[in-house]
Amino acid sequence: MKLNDQVALITGAGSGIGEAIAIGFAKTGAKVVCADKNLTGAEKTANTILKNNGNAIAIKADVSNPVDCKSQVEATVENFGTIDILVNNAGVGFHRLFIDTTLEDWNRVIGINLTGSFLTAQAATKEMIKNHSGKIINIGSVSGQRGGTGRAAYGASKAGLMQLTRVMSVELAPLGIAVNAIAPGPIQTPLTNHGPEQKKAYLDRIPARTYGDTDAITAAAIFLASKEAQFIHGTTLNVDGGFNAAGLMFSTDEMLSYESGPADSWSKPS
User: Fold this and answer.
1) Please, are residues 214 and 187 in contact by the beta-carbon 8 Å criterion?
2) CA atoms of 109 and 187, how far apart (whole Å)
3) In the annotation, is 258 catalytic?
């Protein structure tokens, strides 16, 4: 899959998943705009791309600011003439019990994760319509699909973003624009700060029994941005090791310990 000469704006490209997607897109031939409120981080990502003979620029943009949501799209068009791909990756994580979440907490998380993506996508769409083509990829989360302790604001923001993806796809597909989302599960990045108990809680619920890495998210984003995915609209691609699919999980030994019922037919792998 190649993104030769496609112009891609990646928000939150200064670190973590956004950095990995920006570098991955450049490796497949895309011209990349690395946007982040941390300009130093965005420049680091862009310089990595340039050192590997890619094409990239860095810009400062804070998606909590409506002006920046629009201006980062304008900067993309000014520098590269158009915008073909938008990856709405910029966001903020947040853990706080529902009963303790303040209105300030709520507005901040919703404003960045949902409203910022909405406004950036709206600005990008107005440019993409001119070419009757484009790809928009919203980075959601399994926290927007399943209830999780301390995830009232964050989970609501990501659930809203994935529903926005569906609505956008219905309206924009006739205009040649494909809108999809990726829902990462636990992904190991330099910013991942899970303690032993939190890590065990995740691993006990992930069929793959491991955290993912940024390469997995990058591969999914490249696919959704490619021509191979041209007939995919309005879907959320889970990249989560099976986390969202899982219900109760038992080891083979635990299943074999049952004295009756369907477990009787189980046998240990040879």
Assistant:
1) yes
2) 20
3) no
Alpha carbon distances (Å) from 126 to 70, 77, 131 = 10, 11, 10
User: Which of 39-48, 172-181, 239-248 bottoms out in mean pLDDT, i.e. has the lowest?
Assistant: 239-248
CB within 8 Å of 42: residues ≥ 6 apart:
13, 14, 34, 35, 36, 58, 59, 60
| Residue 244: Cβ-neighbour burial (10 angstroms; 0-12, 13-18, 19+) | middle
On the 0-12 / 13-18 / 19+ scale of CB atoms within 10 A, 114 is buried
Residue 187, both tokens? 């992904």
Given a contact cutoff of 8 angstroms between Cβ atoms, the answer to whether 199 and 254 are in contact is: no
The structure tokens listed for 195 are 């303690």
Domains along the chain with CATH numbers: 7-265 (3.40.50.720)
In tens, the pLDDT along 42-80 reads 999 999 999 999 999 999 999 999 999 999 999 999 999
* Digit-coded pLDDT (tens) for 79-129: 999 999 999 999 999 889 999 999 999 999 999 999 999 999 999 999 999
The pTM assigned to this predicted structure is 0.90
Give the per-residue pLDDT at 253: 65
Enter the tokens of residue 112. Answer: 């960045």
Q: Are 64 and 112 spatial neighbours (Cβ–Cβ below 8 Å)?
A: yes
Read off the pLDDT band of 211 (50, 70, 90): confident
Please name the helix (run of DSSP H) or strand (run of DSSP E) that holds residue 225, with its range, or none.
Answer: helix 214-225
Task: Please report the pLDDT score of residue 215 as a whole number.
Answer: 93
- SS3 for 23-53 is HHHHHCCCEEEEEECCHHHHHHHHHHHHHCC
Whole-number Å distance between alpha carbons of 116 and 231 = 27
Catalytic pick among 154, 202, 211, 258: 154
